[in-house]
Design brief:
The chain is mainly α. The protein is 63% helix and 0% strand. Helix 1 (9-20) packs antiparallel against helix 2 (24-39) and helix 6 (101-110) runs antiparallel to helix 7 (112-121).
């Protein structure tokens, strides 16, 4: 599917608004990103995303990938995550992997104790200074 120009424009303004309400250590980087997103063409942002998250293992958004790669052990780790979500009354869509950082953070926002445990268990992958997870973990 081709990338559509202008899709980020409303959300970059929203990101700037959210950044202004956050403490400086959080709001500063968010504001810088929102400003960059507002002035960068969408195809370039998409290429940056792919270069950062799809081509570099240490910046992968799938938390179990660090420890297991594409192995059977990762499959078992994914199953354990789904079971954790189910025990808390949550069910993921069939096309959603349970180890994606956004999914784990959403779960942690509603189940802080269990969510913190999951984030801590998968911290090894997210502890790199390059990692996009370092702010969340």
């Amino acid at each position: 599917m081709p990338v559509q120009e202008g899709v980020l424009k409303p959300s970059h303004r929203q990101g700037r608004g959210v950044a202004a309400t956050q403490p400086r250590p959080v709001g500063g980087p968010l504001l810088r990103f929102a400003e960059r997103a507002g002035r960068t063409p969408l195809p370039e942002l998409a290429a940056d995303y792919v270069a950062t998250f799809d081509h570099r293992k240490r910046c992968c958004l799938y938390l179990t990938y660090y420890a297991h790669g594409d192995t059977r052990k990762r499959g078992m780790a994914l199953l354990r995550l789904k079971q954790t979500y189910a025990a808390a009354g949550r069910r993921l869509c069939d096309d959603e992997l349970p180890d994606h950082l956004a999914v784990v953070l959403e779960f942690a926002a509603t189940e802080p104790v269990a969510g913190a445990r999951l984030l801590t268990e998968h911290r090894a992958g997210g502890s790199s200074t390059c990692s996009p997870h370092r702010w969340a973990i």
